[in-house]
Amino acid sequence: MKNFSSWLIAMFALMFWGFRLVGTVLYSIGNEFMFSPSNMTIEIALLFITFICICFMVKRRLTAALIYCAAHFIYYGPTFATHFMQMVNGSLASDLYLTTLFELFALGLGLAALFDVLLDKNRKAHPKDKKTDWFYTNKDYDRKLDDRADKNNYRTL
Asked: Is the pTM of the predicted complex or chain greater than 0.85?
């Protein structure tokens, strides 16, 4: 993850995950938070899936981004569509506007994470190998060894 946008998406995803975790815990003990989960069982499963996917999205795994986006669209998509249609018709309750905003943010974050991993040019073109990259990509090391008096072959290639 070399791009600043990739780090921002990962941080927003992690903050949104923490926000949903706090909201779910408070809802389960009976306190009302800014939003109420539509299904507690699926919300808890989604929290676990989301955390695992965020960890692998930092590693630039496409399957993690696909699962993250699909899980958010499956969970938040239908409720967002019904709330949006109620908002267009003018029959949405005033306490559901914030929930609709969070649903929109979750859908947008899922799409942003998916497109960020999909459009990353360095993901497949330049895979990193920590065991050998320090040696073969370090030009200062090459110059220092090339300036020696003896001309030993220190490379294996």
From this structure: no
